Amino acid sequence: MCNHGTLVVTPANPPNLADLPRGYELPAARFRLSADDVRRYLEAVEDCSDAYGPGPEGPAWVPPLAMAALALRAILEQVELPAGALHAGQEVEFRHPVPVGASLHARARVAQRSEMRGAVVSVMEFEVDEEGSSGPAVVGRATVIASRGEAPS
Amino acid sequence: MSVECVPEVPPLSRQVTQEGIRRYAEASGDYNPIHIDEEYARTTPFGGTIAHGMLVLAYLSEMMAAAFGLDWLAGGRLKVRFRAPARPGDTLTARAEPRRARQRDGQARQVNGERVFEYGIECSNQRGEALISGTAEVVVGRLR
Q1: What's the CATH number of domain A2-32+64-147, 3.40.50.2000, 3.10.129.10, 2.40.30.10, 3.10.350.10?
Q2: What's the mean pLDDT when you consider all of chain B?
Q3: What residue segments make up the domains of chain B, in order of their start?
Q4: Phi, psi at A124, each rounded to 5°
Q5: Contacts of residue B44 in chain A, CB cutoff 8 Å?
Q6: Does residue B128 register a pLDDT over 90?
Q7: Cβ-Cβ contacts under 8 Å for A41 (sequence gap 6 or more)
Q8: Which H or E element spans position B68?
Q9: Residues B131-138: what's their mean pLDDT?
Q10: Cα–Cα distance for residue pair A59/A97, rounded to 1 Å
Q11: What is the CATH number assigned to the segment(s) B12-140?
C-alpha cells in the first residue's frame, strides 16, 4: 500500500488520475519486451524499417517508442483513467538503444496539474531504465486531459 | 570545423484500419474502448472509434528511425501535440521538414559538442488536416 498525503492507494482502490496531486509518484513498474512482443508491436504499427537490426530471433533492438508506450501503459494501469480522458501531448527522448529481452523499470510522477473549465490537465513525467545500465534509456512527459467527476470507462 | 547538412527525411504513408487499431491495442495493452468498441465510441463526442495517439506517433518515429537508424535509438527526441484523431479509413502521411530558421545554411546545430539535426514534423490525413504536429531532433554520432 502506498500512502501519499491523504490519498491512500491499494490495488483494489486505484486513484483517479484527475485526483493525483502534483509531485505524486506512481508505483514503479517492471516489464520486459521479448522478441515476440517486439514483433507484435512492429506488425501493429506496420514498421518494416531495418533500424532495429537483425537479432537471433528477430529485431536486435527494442523500438524506442514501444518502450515509451508500454511504460506509459504499465504506469497508467495503476490509476483509473476517467472516461473520455485524452492524450493531448507527448515528449519523449531516446538516450540509448535497448536490446530485445532486457529487463526494464518504469517510474513516473505527476509533474504538473492544473484545472481548466472543469477539466484536469495532468503532465506525467516518466523514465524507463534498463536494468544494469547507468542512465535512463527513455525519458518523457505525457499530457493527459480528463474531465472531472466522470465515471471511469 | 566540419560542416554537415541536415538531410531530407523521406515521408511515410499509412492506412488506418480498425483491424490495425485492434492489433495495436493487443500489442500495447491499451484497450480503452474509445479505440476498439465501436458501439461505445459512437456515444462519445468523436462519434466513432479513433486510433491510439501513440500508434500515430509511431509512424513519425518509424520515419525518423528509417532515416537515422541507431542514431535515432540513441539520440532521438519527439515533442508533439495531438491535435485531432485519426480514424479508420484515414490515409496518414508523416513528414519532416528541416527547421531552416534554427539551422543556419541548413547545417547541423552543435549542442554540447554534439551535432543535432532539427525538424518540424507533422502527421496529416488525406484532407491535409494535421493530426499531430511538433518537432523532432536527432543527435548524430553518439554511438561512434
Answers
A1: 3.10.129.10
A2: 91
A3: 12-140
A4: -100, 125
A5: 84
A6: yes
A7: A33, A47, A63, A66, B27, B28
A8: helix B53-68
A9: 97
A10: 12
A11: 3.10.129.10
Please give the Cα distance from A90 to A123 (Å, whole number).
9
- Is B74 in contact with A97 (Cβ distance < 8 A)? yes
Can you give the pLDDT at residue B102? 63
Residue B30 CA: distances (Å) to CA of A25, A75, A146: 21, 12, 17
Cα of A134 to nearest chain B Cα, Å: 14
Are B72 and A65 inside 8 Å of each other by CB? no
**Does residue B61 sit at the A interface (CB-CB below 8 Å)?**
yes
Residue from the list A93, A97, A153 with its beta carbon closest to the beta carbon of B33: A153
Q: Is A100 a residue whose pLDDT tops 70?
A: yes
ipTM score for this prediction = 0.90
Q: CB distance B82–A88 less than 8 Å?
A: yes
The amino acid at residue A23 is: G
Which chain A residue is nearest to residue B44, measuring alpha carbons? A84
Residue A30: burial class (beta carbons within 10 Å; 0-12, 13-18, 19+) = exposed
Burial status of residue B119 (CB atoms within 10 A of its CB: 0-12, 13-18, 19 or more) = buried
From A53-62, B14-23, B98-107, B111-120, the region with the lowest mean pLDDT: B98-107
Q: Is A97 on the interface with B (CB under 8 A)?
A: yes
C-alpha to C-alpha distance for B95 and B118, rounded to whole angstroms: 13
* Cβ separation B77–A96 shorter than 8 A: no
Secondary structure element (H or E) that encloses residue B15, with its range: strand B12-15
